[in-house]
């Protein structure tokens, strides 16, 4: 990547210059994706393993497509079809893949720090595709590409992160990246789903959605992780929707445009209503398109290639 960065493990520590370089390169790749033949030979001869130990639709497909658009050779490994179920460790699995001369590993794992653990132990370059509730850097980067399109710049802009921040890996990556770019960040949600330590990152918490919406230029709506709600984080889904669901009425009450992002998957009618997600001008599916361009940029920059269209 830009000078001295060989992996992408998180947004923490990436400065404005590096993020801007990734976003600028992503914009170049977006143009290539709009060509009749959206493919370049940039990563010809490079072999990439996508190792997914957790379910994924967008990230897994997006990385694979990005790799194929760059002409890399691609292999896909998921926990269910591998020897993980015979008791093989993550490190052994990846070392075996690496022994087959893989240059780069894209990993999604349920454990926080899994990508760092690997990058400390293998020669291949590593990209974090989401580790537990820790970080999901390429999701944050595609969020930023979409925000830049909508807001033009980040300096002084106010971005609200709404919902289940405690369990969201997208939240932390957004916070680190947005702050590096000069934006202000606030979180909003039930107190049970906002980490108490968030103030240490310079992020304010708000428990009133209408108040938070009146503050922001953009809102990133996180999925309520319904599978965790047996732990009693919220009284009922209905109660959550009433207090923190993003509705058209709520947005209209603010009386000015607010950009709405959602990393997906979405629980329609819970954290976001369909008439917001599918509103004319919604950028939620553009985020997904930008995801391919951003992942092409990250893989390309990490590989150290010279020119985007070589
Ligand atoms: N946004 C995101 O990471 O979606 P997936 O879990 O489907 O990859």
How is the secondary structure organized here?
Layout: H1 16-33, E1 47-52, H2 58-69, E2 73-78, H3 90-99, E3 104-109, H4 114-119, E4 125-131, H5 137-151, E5 158-162, H6 169-180, E6 184-188, E7 204-206, H7 209-215, E8 218-221, H8 237-244, H9 248-254, E9 259-261, H10 274-277, H11 284-303
Parallel strand pairs: 1-2, 1-3, 3-4, 5-6, 5-8, 6-7, 8-9
Helix pairs in contact: 1-5, 1-11, 2-11, 5-6, 5-11
The protein binds phosphoric acid mono(formamide)ester.
What would you note in describing this structure?
This protein folds into 2 domains: 149 residues, Rossmann fold (3-Layer(aba) Sandwich), CATH 3.40.50; 151 residues, Rossmann fold, CATH 3.40.50.1370. It is built from 11 helices and 9 strands. The protein is globular, with a radius of gyration of 19 Å. By secondary structure, the protein is of the alpha/beta class. The two termini are 17 Å apart. Phosphoric acid mono(formamide)ester binds next to helix 2.
Short description:
By secondary structure, this protein is of the alpha/beta class. The chain is built from 11 helices and 9 strands. It has helices at residues 16-33, 58-69, 90-99, 114-119, 137-151, 169-180, 209-215, 237-244, 248-254, 274-277, 284-303; strands at 47-52, 73-78, 104-109, 125-131, 158-162, 184-188, 204-206, 218-221, 259-261.
């Amino acid at each position: 990547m830009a000078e001295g960065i060989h992996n992408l493990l998180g947004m923490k520590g990436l400065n404005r210059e590096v993020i801007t370089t990734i976003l600028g390169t992503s914009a170049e790749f977006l143009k290539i994706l709009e060509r009749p033949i959206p493919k370049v030979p940039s990563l010809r001869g490079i072999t990439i393993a996508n190792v997914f130990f957790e379910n994924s639709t967008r990230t897994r497909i997006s990385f694979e497509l990005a790799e194929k658009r760059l002409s890399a050779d691609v292999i896909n490994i998921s926990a269910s079809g591998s020897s993980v179920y015979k008791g093989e460790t993550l490190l052994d699995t990846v070392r075996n893949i690496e022994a087959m001369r893989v240059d780069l590993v894209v990993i999604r794992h349920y454990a926080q720090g899994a990508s760092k653990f690997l990058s400390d132990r293998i020669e291949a370059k590593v990209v974090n595709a989401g580790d537990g509730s820790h970080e999901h850097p390429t999701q944050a980067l595609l969020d930023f590409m979409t925000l830049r399109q909508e807001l033009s710049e980040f300096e002084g802009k106010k971005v609200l992160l709404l919902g289940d921040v405690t369990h969201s890996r997208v939240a932390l990556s957004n916070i680190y990246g947005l702050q590096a770019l000069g934006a202000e960040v606030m979180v909003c949600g039930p107190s049970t789903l906002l980490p108490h330590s968030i103030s240490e990152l310079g992020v304010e918490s708000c428990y009133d959605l209408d108040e938070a919406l009146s503050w922001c230029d953009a809102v990133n709506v996180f999925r309520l992780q319904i599978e965790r709600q047996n732990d009693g984080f919220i009284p009922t889904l209905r109660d959550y929707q009433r207090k923190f669901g993003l509705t058209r009425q709520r947005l209209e009450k603010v009386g000015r445009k607010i950009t709405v992002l959602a990393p997906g998957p979405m629980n329609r009618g819970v954290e976001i209503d369909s008439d917001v997600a599918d509103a004319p001008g919604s950028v939620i599916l553009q985020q997904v398109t930008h995801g391919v361009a951003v992942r092409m940029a990250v893989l390309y920059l990490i590989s150290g290639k010279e020119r985007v269209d070589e």
